[in-house]
Amino acid sequence: MAEQSWVAGADESGFGLENLPFGAVSRAGGPARPAVRIGAHALILEPLAEAGLLGDLPPGALAGPVLNPFLALGRETWSATRARIAGLLRSGSPDQEAAAAALVPLTEVEAVLPIAIGDYVDFYSSIEHASNVGKIFRPDAEPLLPNWRHLPVGYHGRASSVIVSGTDVRRPQGQLPPPEPGGAPGFGPTERLDIELELGFVTGPGNALGTSIATADVREHVFGFVLVNDWSARDIQRWEYVPLGPFLGKSFATSVSPWIVPLEALEPHRVAAREQDPEPLDYLRTDEDWALDIELEVAIAPEGGEETVVARTNARGLYWTAPQQLAHATVNGTNVRPGDLYASGTISGPDPGSRGSLLELTWGGRDPLELHGGGTRKFLQDGDTVVLRGVAGAVSLGEVRGRILPSV
């Protein structure tokens, strides 16, 4: 039976004692303070740490404005701190009064970006997504390039434009493909603004430059997971991506959910990953089940209109898993630092309704989506709000949402 919390409404909310995600909140524009979400409340951590209720932490580890100093402390400290927080919030806690004094309703604070992201890497880990994109962008060629089944393809994104859920997204502009082969490109706002349903992980201590991280050591370096929407301008992307891959078509905005769900909370939801053929090289092999059974959905709401869920899928279908992604990212000796973000790439399933981007859902705009209340979408329009949600049993990953503003 699940443990119960004395915090009203926390049990069975998705943010009960099974979860306890970490984030940062700000009150009325004040300084950001690290917190843990419990139900519809934020537990401010610094006063509890100063009172010695969170164990032997270094001074300032949870003083804010970001979680990076805490992430640097490593798995043993993460686990011990989370256990102490659970004890404070559990029914019958002798320290309930002290914890209650640090509890703030979410309606009175703003959830802010909880980490200072030094590096952001986006992978391409769904074989269904990669195959669909290949068919759409290269209809007369093999959908998957020869390297795809041998390594987790990825690229370095722009960390400065990673934004927290709820931040508006300005429609980007750039060069657009020529209207006919051999013609000159145009310039203007993207006409094919899209989303990408992704799952990201946040790193902790990391490795020294010149070393690598083995798949077996993932728990030492991965603190937790967030939902990611890697917004994409498909027309800009299509014109620029050969030969060096994504650039302006993706660097304008990447939205993340504000609460980082600890890997420890997702351990009960690890399942067997799909079979990989051919068998990966030794450094990419894993001895444990590392697919995550997380139900995901995408919803679109036009300005002033009702929400339509346009896709549902599951992260367990990813071809490349988080330990493989991190092992590949570091096998050349690059170093990982606390607060770095690694995203899965679009998560798509085998069925039309399980595709994680509008590019796939509408097959390049050929098959418009029907919205509740009337209207259709090939790609996003100004005023649209997109919401991504995720849940693993009793553990919610919350949501990441963003509204489209017109181009300037």
Quick gist of this model?
With 408 residues, the protein is an alpha+beta fold. The chain has 9 helices and 26 strands. The chain folds into 2 domains: 22-112, SH3 type barrels (Roll); 120-405, Alpha-Beta Complex (Fumarylacetoacetate hydrolase, domain 2), CATH 3.90.850.10.
List the helices and strands and how they pair.
Blueprint: E1 22-26, E2 33-38, E3 41-44, H1 46-50, H2 68-71, H3 75-89, H4 96-101, E4 103-105, E5 110-112, E6 120-123, H5 127-137, E7 154-156, E8 162-164, E9 169-170, E10 173-176, E11 186-189, E12 193-194, E13 197-203, E14 222-229, E15 232-233, H6 234-240, E16 254-256, E17 261-262, H7 263-266, E18 270-271, E19 291-292, E20 295-301, E21 308-314, H8 322-330, E22 341-343, H9 358-361, E23 369-370, E24 376-377, E25 385-392, E26 395-405
Parallel strand pairs: 6-22, 8-16, 9-26
Antiparallel strand pairs: 1-2, 1-5, 2-3, 3-4, 6-7, 10-11, 12-15, 13-14, 13-22, 14-16, 14-17, 18-19, 20-21, 20-25, 23-24, 25-26
Structural features, described:
This protein is an alpha+beta fold and 408 residues long. The chain folds into two domains: 22-112, Fumarylacetoacetase, N-terminal domain (SH3 type barrels), CATH 2.30.30; 120-405, Fumarylacetoacetase-like, C-terminal domain (Fumarylacetoacetate hydrolase, domain 2). The protein contains nine helices and 26 strands. The chain has helices at 46-50, 68-71, 75-89, 96-101, 127-137, 234-240, 263-266, 322-330, 358-361, and strands spanning 22-26, 33-38, 41-44, 103-105, 110-112, 120-123, 154-156, 162-164, 169-170, 173-176, 186-189, 193-194, 197-203, 222-229, 232-233, 254-256, 261-262, 270-271, 291-292, 295-301, 308-314, 341-343, 369-370, 376-377, 385-392, 395-405. β25 (385-392) and β26 (395-405) form a beta hairpin. The protein starts with 21 loop residues before the first strand and ends with a strand.
